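Supplementary Methods. Inverse-folding protocol.

Structures were first reduced to a discrete structure-token string of length 400. This string, shown here, constituted the complete conditioning input.
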């Protein structure tokens, strides 16, 4: 059973082994709410996961430790287990889905773990880890459906209550549910009036579906760049705790997640991975009722693969109307590009790229089209530019 005593014990064990992360005021996230960010992306290993992993391993008997430990993870739990095992002088074998970012895989390897890559997503890695555990009799450290792990994650709520004792809402990312289970239980025990909201990526909404249908449901597939939450089915224990202590669960789109990552970079100078930015996306796009409330967004991790960061930033710019394409139909004659550039410059937009194509299906022989990628202020700014083109007699074509 999960108890406050266990969570307080986890806090005692973790006190000198993890970082008490900052709570950062972020007024630009949602202007109608007082938003604070719990920066677990600045935790050692770059994620909250080390809390649950370290506490779980600390509770093992010497006999169990001697047989080694086994885990499966999309990356963050892997790093938490590997580091915790290293600190306890224990061998670890970590099963990681092949879709996990290379940066997370290599970081885990550097902590001394033996890495086993498995084709597929988290659930496929889990199945292989279970088989290996049966063969070796090592101790399996579940990433979320374990009371000691949940208790470790619940220590975040103890810190929050100390840092902002009059908070009125907390928004928590959900994958398998270990984080929100620990946080929700602790908050409801100590501050029952505080609302606890969960958020998932729309392409990996296993807990959302289960919570709203009042039974554990498995997704046929998951599709999200928030790889840390790509779980097909919530845990038994975590589902039960969520049903009892979580007020509402919502989902956010990939574009909304990208926009949240971009906002954290620009406004707060913080790097978050997709899973880590879920709570911020929910606050930014008013997915939960936080107007007028002191609200904490739990930024759960910052281990984003730098190879996709530029793509995520571009996606966020497009979502915010700050990076856009327009396609203009023109006569193929000198001076046309200058006229197009003059219109764009007069509105204070910046041309990033120009592509010129001669002719096309349904067009006259002497016609062409010009595709221009622009940096604009927002959607309204873009619409003003389009309106000017139309007023000056230009035809705008659909952009694909």
């Amino acid at each position: 059973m999960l108890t406050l005593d266990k969570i307080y014990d986890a806090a005692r064990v973790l006190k000198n082994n993890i970082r008490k992360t900052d709570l950062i005021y972020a007024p630009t996230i949602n202007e109608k709410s007082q938003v604070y960010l719990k920066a677990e992306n600045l935790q050692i290993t770059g994620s909250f996961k080390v809390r649950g992993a370290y506490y779980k391993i600390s509770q093992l008997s010497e006999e169990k430790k001697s047989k080694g430990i086994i885990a499966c993870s999309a990356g963050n739990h892997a790093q938490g287990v590997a580091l915790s095992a290293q600190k306890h002088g224990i061998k670890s074998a970590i099963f990681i889905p092949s879709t996990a970012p290379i940066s997370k895989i290599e970081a885990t390897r550097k902590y001394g773990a033996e890495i086993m890559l498995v084709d597929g997503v988290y659930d496929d890695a889990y199945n292989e880890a279970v088989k290996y555990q049966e063969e070796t009799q090592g101790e399996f450290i579940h990433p979320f459906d374990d009371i000691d792990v949940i208790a470790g994650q619940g220590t975040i709520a103890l810190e929050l209550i100390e840092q902002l004792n009059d908070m009125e809402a907390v928004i928590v990312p959900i994958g398998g549910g270990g984080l929100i289970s620990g946080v929700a239980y602790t908050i409801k025990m100590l501050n029952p009036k505080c609302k606890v909201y969960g958020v998932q990526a729309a392409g990996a909404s296993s807990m959302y579906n289960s919570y709203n249908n009042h039974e554990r449901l498995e997704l046929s597939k998951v599709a999200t760049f928030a790889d840390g939450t790509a779980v097909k089915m919530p845990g038994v224990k975590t589902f039960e705790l969520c049903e009892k202590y979580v007020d509402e669960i919502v989902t956010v789109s990939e574009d909304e997640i990208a926009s949240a990552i971009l906002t954290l970079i620009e406004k707060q100078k913080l790097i978050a991975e997709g899973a880590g930015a879920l709570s911020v996306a929910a606050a930014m796009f008013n997915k939960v009722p936080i107007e007028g409330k002191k609200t904490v967004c739990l930024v759960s991790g910052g281990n984003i693969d730098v190879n996709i960061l530029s793509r995520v930033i571009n996606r966020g710019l497009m979502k915010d109307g700050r990076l856009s394409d327009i396609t203009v139909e023109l006569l193929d004659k000198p001076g046309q590009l200058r006229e197009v550039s003059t219109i764009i410059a007069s509105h204070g937009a910046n041309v990033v790229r120009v592509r010129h194509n001669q002719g096309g299906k349904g067009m006259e022989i002497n016609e062409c089209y010009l595709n221009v990628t622009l940096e604009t202020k927002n959607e309204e700014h873009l619409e003003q530019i389009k309106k000017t083109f139309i007023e000056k007699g230009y035809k705008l074509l659909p952009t694909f």
